[in-house]
Write a structure and sequence with these properties.
This protein is α+β, with helices and mostly antiparallel strands and about 180 residues long. Helices cover about 15% and strands about 40% of the residues.
Length: about 180
């Protein structure tokens, strides 16, 4: 298992192992891809004890009340299901953190994922916070889980024998790391 570089992400996209729709080159980074806020969100106002569904594409932006919360989807869809060779870690970009916003999402996206990325965002500040259509809300780091970048043919015969012994009898073996 290893982290994909930006070039490897692009190669996986070209080979349709990772499908991001719509894919935007400017959101690709050296080791991640940024996802943006989608069209429809549900905003919860803790002070007024109410919620409302908003079409953010029509409105452009919306204010989140202090201690408010929203449920939303990414603008992009992410499909990892074609090969099941990739999973992703999803987290908050610094732009959310510096604005007092907390991204609520499972830390991983499974290899079977084929949908928008769903998440919550909480305003941690005592003041209103502005959320905009297609603002960056998360970044995905992709992992190839089908193979190791180190293959057995690169290892010495002594190391292979030591490794095999450790696998078959782990309590009585020690692996010799010399190559």
């Amino acid at each position: 298992m290893y982290i994909l570089s930006g070039d490897q992400i692009l190669e996986h996209i070209d080979n349709r192992i990772i499908i991001i729709s719509p894919f935007q080159t400017h959101l690709l980074n050296p080791s991640s891809y940024y996802f943006t806020l989608g069209r429809i969100i549900k905003v919860f106002d803790a002070i007024k004890s109410e919620s409302k569904t908003i079409n953010l594409e029509d409105r452009g932006e919306v204010k989140i009340a202090p201690n408010g919360y929203l449920l939303g989807n990414s603008y992009e869809t992410l499909d990892l299901s074609s090969s099941k060779k990739v999973f992703a870690s999803f987290g908050a970009p610094y732009s959310l953190i510096e604005n007092g916003l907390l991204l609520c999402h499972s830390p991983t996206i499974d290899p079977y994922h084929n949908d928008f990325i769903q998440f919550g965002i909480k305003n941690l500040l005592p003041i209103e916070n502005t959320i905009r259509f297609q603002m960056v809300i998360g970044k995905a780091i992709f992992f190839n889980i089908s193979e190791s970048p180190i293959t057995l043919h690169h290892l010495s015969e002594a190391f292979k024998a030591s490794l095999q012994k450790a696998v078959t009898n782990p309590l009585s073996s020690e692996i010799k790391l010399e190559q």
